[in-house]
Amino acid sequence: MAHPYSIAIQKKFAAHKNDKAAKGAKAYLLNQFEFYGIKTPLRRKLCKEFYKANPINTHKELTTLVKECFEAPEREMHYFAIELLGYHKKLWSKQTISLIEWIITHKSWWDSVDSTNSHVIGKFFVEFPEYIKPTTSKWNKSSNIWLQRMSILFQLMYKDKTDTQLLTKYIEHCQLEEEFFIRKAIGWALRAYAYTDAKWVKAFIKTHSKLSNLSKREALKHC
To answer: Smallest Cα–Cα separation from 196: which of 158, 170, 165?
Structure first.
């Protein structure tokens, strides 16, 4: 039986449905998901109002709601679940790692995975740095491309706090991967760090000739 919380947000989203926008959004993500067609600014406004009006007090309930929202066919419900987890930062604990992994590996595409990084993953490891190496090392060695992608991108916003040794290790392990989303992630991670230390990134590219042209091109885009 569906939780009243998820039923309520689905009704709220349905009241703002836009068929034309939904069609365009569905096509943009290669027809993999259904959409209500709610533009991001409005969706986030609706979500924040809903989160504040409907507090969650336990990690168990939070996990249940995240997974239940992912059962809905509409992609906005998946975004809602990701941002719901991000909003309830005070409930995060070691248990959250398994929930993060669950989100990354369910109904996966770049939009949900990268959103999970922005709203949860990068921030989670700032709060719980002791879990960085054991968790991201496992992701980097995984056969799941989205977990691998996150092992490379979780430091995206860390700037001068970036662990370059870890970044180097993870990129080197994946540098021969032919998967587009891994090659893109490598380039993106290096490009982001180039804003902090362009010299380091240029030197990295010079000493890693096996990197794909896509990764190199992305990395040096603003150097």
So the answer is: 158
Q: Rounded to 5 degrees, what angle do the CA atoms 139, 140, 143 make?
A: 75
* Pair 66, 103: CB distance under 8 Å: yes
Beta carbons of 178 and 193 less than 8 angstroms apart: no
Its pTM stands at 0.95
CA distances from 152 to 25, 111, 170 (A): 27, 16, 6
Work out the burial of residue 61: count CB atoms within 10 Å of its CB; fewer than 13 is exposed, 13-18 middle, 19 or more buried: middle
Question: E strand or H helix at 104, and its extent?
Answer: helix 95-104
Per residue of the chain (223 residues), give pLDDT as tens. Answer: 678 889 999 999 999 999 999 999 999 999 999 999 999 999 999 999 999 999 999 999 999 999 999 999 999 999 999 999 999 999 999 999 999 999 999 999 999 999 999 999 999 999 999 999 999 999 999 999 999 999 999 999 999 999 999 999 999 999 999 999 999 999 999 999 999 999 999 999 999 999 999 999 999 998 8
- Paired tokens of 137: 């090392």
